[in-house]
Amino acid sequence: MRSSPRRSGQVASERSKVSEHPLIGPSPGPPGPPVIQGLSTVEVRWILPGQLDAAVAGWFGRFPGAMDSREDAYLVHPVLRGLAVKIRAGQLLEVKQYHGSLGILDAAGRARGRIECWQKWSFPIGPLGRDDAGAPSWTVVHKRRRMSRFRLAGGRLIAEAAERATGPECGVELTEVRSGGQTWWSLGFEVTGPADLLRRTLEGTAALMFAQAPPGGVELDMGHCQSYAEWLSRHRVTAAIHPRKGEESPGPRRQDQSSSHDQRPEGRTEMTRGRGTPWLTWSPSDIQT
C-alpha cells in the first residue's frame, strides 16, 4: 500500500525534528570549552613557626630571585579530603587535588621531606562580596616571598628569576607568612614540566640549594614538612586547644575538622627568633648568578 505524498512529508518532517535533538551525542548549540586537564606538579614544603631569620634569607639569596607579596584566602571549612582550595591574590580560584607521594626527598641529610604529587586548576574570578566568603569558611594568609627558578636546559640546571612558559622548571620560594596574628616562614619547592623529568628536576634543584647547609641549625625535617592546606588544618586545631591570652577557645573541634588527608607526625614547636628579615635591604651585589 503506497503512502500519500502528504503522509510522507509529515514523517520526514518529524524525523528532521528528532535529528535536531538526538538523545545521544553532543547537546545542541555551540560547543563548550574543552575539558581542562590541569597542571601536574611535584612539591615539597616545610613550614616553621617564628620570624624568618636574616641568616636564612641570606643563605637563600645565593641565587637570582624576584620578590612578590600577596594575600591568599584558603577554604578551611568544610574539609575536603584530598583537595586544597584557595583564592590567589583575589584574582584566581585555585583547586589542587592530591595524587599521593613519590617518596622522601633527602638532601644530603640537610633537609628531609615528603615528595607530594598534585594536580592544579586555576580559574579567573571577580572580587568576592561580603556574603561570599565568611570568616568561618575562609582563612586569609599574608605572604611575602622571594622566588628563585631553576630551569633544566641541556641536562643542566640554570638559576633564573624569570618564569619560563615551557620546559621543566623548579620554583623555590622562601616566604614570610602571617595568619591569625602569628608569624611563620616557609621554604617550598614546586616542579612543573614533563612527568618523567619532575623528580629529577626536584632532586637536582635540592642538591644545588642544600650544597650549603642552612644556617642556625634550621630543622627542615619530616615534622615540619606540610602543605599550606595541612598547616592550616593543624593550625586551627592548635588554636582551639591553646587559645592566645585574652581569647576564648573556639570550642571543641568538629568531627569533620580533623587533620587533612595525609596524617603526618607532629613537629617540634620550639622557635628561635632572629634579627628580622632583610627583604628591603638586598642589593644586586648580594646575589650570585
Keywords, please?
289 residues, alpha+beta, 8-stranded antiparallel β-barrel, 17% helix, globular, disordered C terminus
Characterise this structure:
It is a single chain. It is globular and about 45 Å long. It is built from 4 helices and 9 strands; from the N terminus they run αβαββββββββαα. The protein is of the alpha+beta class. The chain has an 8-stranded antiparallel beta barrel with strand order 1-5-4-3-2-6-8-9. Mean pLDDT is 74; it is low at 11-30 and 239-289. Strand 3 (83-88) and strand 4 (92-106) form a beta hairpin. It has helices at 5-20, 54-60, 198-209, 228-241, and strands at residues 39-49, 66-75, 83-88, 92-106, 112-124, 138-153, 156-160, 169-179, 182-192. It is 17% helix and 34% strand. The protein starts with a helix and ends in a 48-residue tail after the last helix.
Summarize the structure.
Helices cover 17% and strands 34% of the residues. It is built from four helices and nine strands.
